[in-house]
Amino acid sequence: MKSRRDLMLEEMGLTPLWQLRGRAAAKEEAAAVPESRVTSHESRLTGADDRRAAIMGLAWAELKARVASCTDCPLHEKRNKAVFGVGDENADWLFVGEGPGAEEDAQGEPFVGQAGKLLDSMLAAINLKRGQNVYIANLIKCRPPGNRSPEPREALACEPYLHRQIELIRPRLIVALGKVAAVNLLARDASIASLRGQIHQFRGIPLIVTYHPAYLLRNLPDKAKGWVDLCFAVRVMSDLQKAPPPPSNIEIT
Ligand code: URA
Description:
Layout: H1 4-11, H2 48-55, H3 60-68, E1 86-87, E2 93-97, H4 102-107, H5 114-125, E3 134-138, H6 152-169, E4 173-177, H7 179-186, H8 192-195, E5 200-202, E6 205-210, H9 213-218, H10 223-242
Parallel strand pairs: 2-3, 2-4, 4-6
Antiparallel strand pairs: 1-3, 5-6
Bound molecules: uracil.
Protein backbone atom coordinates (compact mmCIF):
# COMPACT_ATOMS: atom_id res chain seq x y z
CA MET A 1 0.00 0.00 0.00
CA LYS A 2 1.27 3.47 -0.83
CA SER A 3 2.22 5.69 2.07
CA ARG A 4 0.47 9.01 2.67
CA ARG A 5 3.66 10.78 1.59
CA ASP A 6 3.81 8.83 -1.70
CA LEU A 7 0.16 9.61 -2.40
CA MET A 8 0.75 13.28 -1.71
CA LEU A 9 3.81 13.39 -3.97
CA GLU A 10 1.83 11.63 -6.70
CA GLU A 11 -0.92 14.20 -6.32
CA MET A 12 1.67 16.96 -6.63
CA GLY A 13 2.97 15.49 -9.87
CA LEU A 14 6.33 14.99 -8.21
CA THR A 15 6.57 11.29 -8.89
CA PRO A 16 8.32 9.23 -10.15
CA LEU A 17 11.02 10.06 -7.68
CA TRP A 18 14.17 10.35 -9.73
CA GLN A 19 17.34 9.14 -8.10
CA LEU A 20 20.79 10.46 -8.86
CA ARG A 21 23.06 7.73 -10.12
CA GLY A 22 26.84 7.69 -10.36
CA ARG A 23 28.88 10.50 -8.96
CA ALA A 24 27.47 12.57 -6.18
CA ALA A 25 25.91 15.85 -7.19
CA ALA A 26 27.22 19.10 -5.81
CA LYS A 27 26.36 19.48 -2.16
CA GLU A 28 23.24 21.59 -1.89
CA GLU A 29 23.59 22.49 1.74
CA ALA A 30 27.26 23.23 1.39
CA ALA A 31 28.88 24.99 4.25
CA ALA A 32 30.73 28.18 3.49
CA VAL A 33 33.24 27.55 0.74
CA PRO A 34 36.88 28.42 1.36
CA GLU A 35 38.23 31.78 0.29
CA SER A 36 39.55 31.53 -3.22
CA ARG A 37 43.18 31.51 -4.14
CA VAL A 38 44.46 34.51 -6.02
CA THR A 39 45.41 33.31 -9.49
CA SER A 40 46.77 34.98 -12.55
CA HIS A 41 43.18 35.36 -13.71
CA GLU A 42 42.59 37.70 -10.80
CA SER A 43 44.38 40.42 -12.69
CA ARG A 44 41.66 40.30 -15.35
CA LEU A 45 39.13 41.22 -12.70
CA THR A 46 40.95 44.23 -11.33
CA GLY A 47 38.93 46.49 -13.59
CA ALA A 48 35.87 44.88 -12.08
CA ASP A 49 33.80 48.05 -11.96
CA ASP A 50 34.48 48.86 -15.60
CA ARG A 51 33.81 45.29 -16.58
CA ARG A 52 30.56 45.25 -14.67
CA ALA A 53 29.47 48.57 -16.17
CA ALA A 54 30.23 47.27 -19.66
CA ILE A 55 28.22 44.08 -19.07
CA MET A 56 25.32 46.02 -17.56
CA GLY A 57 25.08 47.95 -20.84
CA LEU A 58 24.75 44.90 -23.09
CA ALA A 59 21.61 43.91 -24.99
CA TRP A 60 20.54 40.26 -25.12
CA ALA A 61 22.51 39.25 -28.22
CA GLU A 62 25.70 40.89 -27.01
CA LEU A 63 25.28 39.46 -23.55
CA LYS A 64 24.85 35.94 -24.93
CA ALA A 65 27.93 36.34 -27.13
CA ARG A 66 29.95 37.70 -24.22
CA VAL A 67 29.02 34.79 -21.95
CA ALA A 68 29.74 32.26 -24.73
CA SER A 69 33.28 33.59 -25.13
CA CYS A 70 33.97 34.55 -21.51
CA THR A 71 37.44 33.73 -20.18
CA ASP A 72 37.24 35.87 -17.04
CA CYS A 73 37.62 33.05 -14.52
CA PRO A 74 39.37 29.69 -14.65
CA LEU A 75 36.13 27.77 -15.15
CA HIS A 76 36.21 28.54 -18.87
CA GLU A 77 39.24 26.28 -19.31
CA LYS A 78 37.34 23.03 -18.90
CA ARG A 79 33.89 23.95 -20.15
CA ASN A 80 32.36 22.52 -23.29
CA LYS A 81 29.64 25.14 -23.48
CA ALA A 82 28.83 28.12 -21.35
CA VAL A 83 25.24 27.80 -20.15
CA PHE A 84 23.59 31.15 -20.59
CA GLY A 85 19.99 30.54 -19.58
CA VAL A 86 16.80 29.65 -21.35
CA GLY A 87 13.22 30.74 -21.62
CA ASP A 88 10.88 33.61 -22.11
CA GLU A 89 12.86 36.83 -22.01
CA ASN A 90 9.76 38.66 -20.79
CA ALA A 91 8.88 36.09 -18.16
CA ASP A 92 7.15 36.87 -14.89
CA TRP A 93 8.99 33.95 -13.29
CA LEU A 94 12.75 33.65 -13.02
CA PHE A 95 14.20 30.47 -11.51
CA VAL A 96 17.87 30.70 -10.57
CA GLY A 97 19.99 27.62 -9.95
CA GLU A 98 23.59 27.21 -8.98
CA GLY A 99 25.59 26.24 -12.02
CA PRO A 100 25.74 23.77 -14.89
CA GLY A 101 26.39 20.07 -14.38
CA ALA A 102 27.81 17.65 -16.93
CA GLU A 103 24.71 17.43 -19.08
CA GLU A 104 24.13 21.16 -19.05
CA ASP A 105 27.79 21.69 -19.99
CA ALA A 106 27.39 19.30 -22.92
CA GLN A 107 24.10 20.77 -24.17
CA GLY A 108 24.52 24.44 -23.25
CA GLU A 109 21.11 24.58 -21.54
CA PRO A 110 20.35 24.80 -17.81
CA PHE A 111 18.61 22.03 -15.92
CA VAL A 112 18.53 19.33 -18.57
CA GLY A 113 19.79 16.48 -16.33
CA GLN A 114 18.05 14.63 -13.52
CA ALA A 115 17.60 17.77 -11.43
CA GLY A 116 16.15 19.45 -14.50
CA LYS A 117 13.55 16.73 -14.90
CA LEU A 118 12.45 17.33 -11.36
CA LEU A 119 12.43 21.09 -11.94
CA ASP A 120 10.20 20.57 -14.98
CA SER A 121 7.84 18.45 -12.83
CA MET A 122 7.83 21.12 -10.16
CA LEU A 123 6.95 23.72 -12.79
CA ALA A 124 4.21 21.49 -14.20
CA ALA A 125 2.78 21.04 -10.69
CA ILE A 126 2.06 24.78 -10.62
CA ASN A 127 0.96 24.95 -14.26
CA LEU A 128 4.19 26.40 -15.55
CA LYS A 129 6.35 25.25 -18.41
CA ARG A 130 9.95 25.95 -19.27
CA GLY A 131 9.96 28.77 -21.79
CA GLN A 132 6.38 29.92 -21.21
CA ASN A 133 6.42 32.93 -18.92
CA VAL A 134 9.39 31.21 -17.23
CA TYR A 135 13.09 31.92 -17.55
CA ILE A 136 15.71 29.60 -16.07
CA ALA A 137 19.22 30.75 -15.34
CA ASN A 138 22.13 29.87 -13.12
CA LEU A 139 24.33 31.85 -10.83
CA ILE A 140 27.39 30.76 -12.76
CA LYS A 141 27.54 29.95 -16.44
CA CYS A 142 30.38 27.42 -16.61
CA ARG A 143 30.54 24.03 -14.96
CA PRO A 144 32.73 23.77 -11.87
CA PRO A 145 34.90 20.62 -11.90
CA GLY A 146 33.21 17.64 -10.28
CA ASN A 147 30.04 19.70 -9.85
CA ARG A 148 31.45 21.37 -6.76
CA SER A 149 29.82 24.59 -5.58
CA PRO A 150 31.25 27.72 -7.16
CA GLU A 151 34.04 29.46 -5.30
CA PRO A 152 33.29 33.04 -4.23
CA ARG A 153 35.52 34.57 -6.89
CA GLU A 154 33.85 32.47 -9.60
CA ALA A 155 30.43 33.59 -8.43
CA LEU A 156 31.67 37.18 -8.29
CA ALA A 157 33.06 37.03 -11.82
CA CYS A 158 29.78 35.68 -13.18
CA GLU A 159 27.53 37.94 -11.10
CA PRO A 160 27.17 40.76 -13.63
CA TYR A 161 25.87 38.30 -16.24
CA LEU A 162 23.01 37.17 -14.01
CA HIS A 163 22.35 40.72 -12.86
CA ARG A 164 22.10 41.91 -16.46
CA GLN A 165 19.76 39.01 -17.28
CA ILE A 166 17.55 40.02 -14.36
CA GLU A 167 17.57 43.64 -15.48
CA LEU A 168 16.61 42.67 -19.03
CA ILE A 169 13.90 40.18 -18.02
CA ARG A 170 12.44 42.29 -15.21
CA PRO A 171 10.65 39.27 -13.70
CA ARG A 172 7.88 39.79 -11.21
CA LEU A 173 9.32 37.06 -8.99
CA ILE A 174 12.69 35.39 -8.60
CA VAL A 175 12.78 31.87 -7.17
CA ALA A 176 16.22 31.02 -5.85
CA LEU A 177 16.83 27.28 -6.09
CA GLY A 178 19.03 26.29 -3.20
CA LYS A 179 21.28 27.97 -0.73
CA VAL A 180 24.08 28.92 -3.11
CA ALA A 181 21.80 30.87 -5.45
CA ALA A 182 19.94 32.40 -2.51
CA VAL A 183 22.89 33.64 -0.48
CA ASN A 184 24.62 35.04 -3.54
CA LEU A 185 21.55 36.90 -4.73
CA LEU A 186 20.74 38.15 -1.25
CA ALA A 187 24.41 38.89 -0.50
CA ARG A 188 24.19 37.44 3.00
CA ASP A 189 24.81 34.08 4.52
CA ALA A 190 21.84 32.28 6.05
CA SER A 191 20.47 28.78 6.25
CA ILE A 192 17.94 27.71 3.69
CA ALA A 193 15.55 26.90 6.54
CA SER A 194 15.64 30.51 7.71
CA LEU A 195 15.18 31.89 4.18
CA ARG A 196 12.19 29.77 3.11
CA GLY A 197 8.65 31.07 3.42
CA GLN A 198 9.53 34.75 3.26
CA ILE A 199 9.46 37.38 0.55
CA HIS A 200 12.97 38.78 0.18
CA GLN A 201 14.02 41.46 -2.24
CA PHE A 202 16.66 41.44 -4.92
CA ARG A 203 17.15 45.12 -5.74
CA GLY A 204 13.43 45.76 -5.61
CA ILE A 205 12.32 42.47 -7.15
CA PRO A 206 10.56 39.99 -4.82
CA LEU A 207 12.58 36.84 -4.29
CA ILE A 208 11.68 33.61 -2.56
CA VAL A 209 13.86 30.67 -1.69
CA THR A 210 13.31 26.96 -2.04
CA TYR A 211 15.38 23.82 -2.12
CA HIS A 212 17.52 22.98 -5.10
CA PRO A 213 15.98 20.11 -7.13
CA ALA A 214 19.23 18.12 -6.84
CA TYR A 215 18.96 18.39 -3.06
CA LEU A 216 15.34 17.19 -3.21
CA LEU A 217 16.43 14.17 -5.26
CA ARG A 218 18.75 13.19 -2.44
CA ASN A 219 16.42 14.12 0.41
CA LEU A 220 13.01 12.83 -0.58
CA PRO A 221 11.20 13.76 2.66
CA ASP A 222 11.95 17.43 1.92
CA LYS A 223 9.98 17.24 -1.34
CA ALA A 224 6.89 18.01 0.74
CA LYS A 225 8.56 21.20 1.95
CA GLY A 226 9.43 21.99 -1.67
CA TRP A 227 5.75 21.72 -2.47
CA VAL A 228 4.89 24.11 0.36
CA ASP A 229 7.39 26.57 -1.16
CA LEU A 230 5.85 26.22 -4.61
CA CYS A 231 2.38 26.92 -3.20
CA PHE A 232 3.82 29.97 -1.44
CA ALA A 233 5.39 31.10 -4.72
CA VAL A 234 2.05 30.79 -6.52
CA ARG A 235 0.31 32.89 -3.85
CA VAL A 236 3.03 35.54 -3.99
CA MET A 237 2.87 35.66 -7.80
CA SER A 238 -0.89 35.92 -7.76
CA ASP A 239 -0.63 38.98 -5.50
CA LEU A 240 2.12 40.45 -7.66
CA GLN A 241 0.07 39.99 -10.82
CA LYS A 242 -2.67 42.13 -9.27
CA ALA A 243 -0.16 44.96 -8.84
CA PRO A 244 1.11 47.14 -11.70
CA PRO A 245 4.01 45.57 -13.66
CA PRO A 246 7.54 46.30 -12.47
CA PRO A 247 8.94 49.58 -13.83
CA SER A 248 10.77 49.35 -17.14
CA ASN A 249 13.72 51.30 -15.81
CA ILE A 250 14.92 48.94 -13.09
CA GLU A 251 18.64 49.47 -12.79
CA ILE A 252 20.74 46.95 -10.98
CA THR A 253 23.93 48.63 -9.97
N1 URA B 1 21.96 22.38 -11.20
C1 URA B 1 21.94 23.72 -11.34
O1 URA B 1 22.01 24.46 -10.36
N2 URA B 1 21.81 24.21 -12.55
C2 URA B 1 21.71 23.47 -13.64
O2 URA B 1 21.59 24.00 -14.74
C3 URA B 1 21.74 22.06 -13.48
C4 URA B 1 21.86 21.55 -12.25
